[in-house]
Design a protein that fits this description.
This protein is an alpha+beta fold and about 70 residues long. The protein has one helix and three strands, in the order E-E-E-H. Helices cover about 30% and strands about 15% of the residues. Strands 1-2-3 form a three-stranded antiparallel beta sheet, covered by helices on one side. Strand 1 (about 5-10) and strand 2 (about 15-20) form a beta hairpin.
Length: about 70
Amino acid sequence: MMQYLIVIEKTETGYSAYSPDLLGCVSTGSTREEVEQNMRQAVEFHLDGLKLEGFEIPQPTTSSVYIEVAA
């Protein structure tokens, strides 16, 4: 089991998401829950495609952390 970071961004029409470790793997949804579900399916589809084409599956390397700053 691998864990890939996904970045979720609010848009004018809902949400969009991408994974920094999987170039070109993106999805959208009208709610945060929907974009998470869609992105899970997109990542699985992306990895299946890489396997079918004989490419190596990228190891997840991206991480995230929040920092506090005075604003």
